[in-house]
Write a structure and sequence with these properties.
Oligomer: single chain
Number of helices: 18
Distance between the termini: 54 Å
Number of strands: 18
Helix content: 25-40%
CATH class of the largest domain: Alpha Beta
Structural class: alpha+beta
Strand content: 15-25%
CATH superfamily of the largest domain: NADH Oxidase
CATH architecture of the largest domain: 3-Layer(aba) Sandwich
Shape: globular
Largest sheet: 7 strands, antiparallel
Strand order of the largest sheet: 1-6-5-4-7-9-8
Length: 519
């Protein structure tokens, strides 16, 4: 049996990293600021080539960019200026804040703890003003470091089992995640954050790609060792997690110019010492794929297992389901995607002002229209289901709801003022209690694992991050605020049960008016 099919590993990891009232108090982990990891990967011997710094104005509204995608076979290839735009608005430094011990650099996409463990690498053919090569994106210097010269895209084609989007993409961005940079604070739960933080970044990247007229597809099925070797990463510390195929050309890539061998490039250590959390590496190893044929089988779902359960409407007397009532075309904010990304932050305090049903409807509608990804059978399908605690939404009674995204309906599960419960569920923080609405991402994890194996755990976490990232952008496009949060896993399920019985909590985003809004 393939390691990927031994789903006990995922169950062990997921259960071991659950938060509970007891586990939080039993964990005496303290942050060692003297050993805090560097926020950037730095190659000691490679100088970066600078990227263009001017932000293009696409004129495409953020709410349009996050809800649409360019048809897959649209002929398009990015030039260097477009690549710079994609990188800056997904992983670039947008602001900095000084504090007594140093300076924090904030990036374009939200990230747990502002620790930014996701690195980006480019694999491309010859493009306008950029030669074919394998590059590392140097966020600190806003440049590219060339790791290998020549066109190595065929290596990715073989590693993905001849995924068509990769085979025809003039540019592929590979996202890696670095264990220690996030585990310094979050310990073994970091592997969940790989999906969240990579996902919010991909929400930005997909939106900017659409605004730039580029077809894009998220790829999670690949031979892990092959990709890690091409990037020359130390897989004990940093691992490939996802890829995005960008653009489309009819010409297939040539054979690689040379055999992929180790480069041995020196990088500056992140800290004086690193703490290893073996549970994360075991989870990653168990969800790895080892042969192109295994990737093909995974992608085509040759062992589909049991599909995710679709819960029927509740049987007890509750109000009639509420159809989405999105803003009209005349009311939709037209703020362009690049402007919204640059003003996005993570809300630190919510104001008590209600949002409207139209604003909430627009958020849910635009964020869930579909993600082009190899783990989804069609645009609009989802692994995650959205459950809401509504506190202050005009036209809706306060209470717990489930969003039926296929029918565009909100069903009330129970009415009541649940601010206190929401605060508790969100790790006893004020943010989910003060927000206008809290969106919980829940999934039928057992069904997903039966269908996709352990690799499904990467996919469900990544999808939650992408959807959460779209909610972020949709909120800031409407001059609202948003923040991602962690939670007490099993208590979340109990709160939404019996409807949520058998599901697992994946992610949480709180939405509302920021108390310190800057727009």
């Amino acid at each position: 049996m393939s390691e990927n099919r031994d789903i006990d590993v995922t169950e062990t990891y997921h259960n071991a990293t659950k938060h509970s009232y007891t586990s939080i108090r039993a964990n005496r982990h303290a942050l060692d600021f003297a050993n805090q990891p560097l926020p950037f990967k730095v190659y000691a011997t490679l100088e970066p080539s600078p990227l263009p710094t001017e932000v293009r104005q696409t004129g495409v509204a953020a709410l349009s960019a996050i809800s649409a995608s360019i048809p897959a076979q649209t002929e398009a290839a990015p030039d260097l200026e477009t690549i710079a735009q994609l990188l800056f608005l997904s992983a670039g430094i947008t602001r900095a804040r000084k504090y007594p011990g140093g300076e924090i650099y904030f990036r374009a996409a939200a990230c747990t703890g502002a620790l930014y463990e996701v690195e980006l690498y480019l694999v491309c053919g010859d493009l306008l003003n950029l030669s074919a090569a394998v590059y590392h994106f140097a966020a600190a210097e806003f440049g590219l470091r060339k790791l290998r010269g020549g066109d190595y895209r065929q290596v990715l084609v073989e590693a993905t089992g001849a995924e068509p989007a990769i085979a025809h993409a003039p540019l592929i961005i590979v996202c890696t995640c670095t264990y220690w940079r996030n585990a310094w604070k979050y310990q073994a739960r970091t592997y969940r954050h790989f999906g969240w933080d990579n996902g919010t970044m991909l929400a930005n990247l997909l939106g900017v790609a659409t605004a730039s007229g580029l077809p894009a597809k998220v790829i999670t099925g690949f031979v892990d060792d092959t990709i890690n070797a091409l990037l020359d990463v130390d897989s004990r510390r940093e691992v490939a997690f996802s890829m995005v195929a960008l653009g489309h050309t009819a010409t297939l890539p040539p054979d690689p110019p040379a055999r992929v061998t180790a480069l041995g490039l020196e990088t500056i250590p992140l800290s004086r010492h690193e703490v290893d959390y073996p549970l994360m590496r075991e989870m990653h190893a168990a969800s790895s794929l080892h042969w192109p044929t295994e990737v093909e089988a995974w992608r085509h779902n040759l062992d589909p297992g049991v599909p995710a359960r679709v819960q029927p409407f509740t049987q007890h007397p509750v109000p009639t389901p509420i159809p989405l009532q999105s803003l009209s075309d005349a009311e939709i904010p037209r703020d362009p995607i690049e402007q919204v990304i640059l003003r996005r932050g993570s809300t630190r305090q919510f104001a008590p002002t209600p949002i409207t049903l139209a604003q909430l409807s627009t958020l849910l509608d635009r964020a869930t229209r579909g993600i082009p990804a190899d783990f989804l059978q069609s645009m609009g399908s989802q692994l995650n289901e959205l459950y809401l605690i509504v506190h202050a939404v005009g036209g809706m009674a306060s209470g717990a709801y489930v969003f039926h995204h296929d029918r565009r309906l909100l069903e009330c599960l129970k009415q009541g003022d649940f601010r206190q419960e929401a605060g508790y569920l969100g790790l006893e923080q004020a943010l989910p209690a003060d927000a206008a609405v809290d969106v919980f991402f829940l999934a039928d994890l057992q069904a997903i694992l039966r269908r996709f194996g352990n690799r499904g755990y990467r996919a469900v976490q990544l999808e939650a991050g992408i959807l959460g990232g779209k909610l972020y952008l949709g909120a800031y496009a409407q001059h609202l605020g948003a923040t991602g949060l962690t939670f007490y896993d099993d208590d979340v399920i109990r709160f939404f049960s019996p409807h949520a019985e058998g599901k697992s909590a994946i992610f949480l985003v709180a939405l509302g008016h920021s108390a310190k809004r800057k727009s």
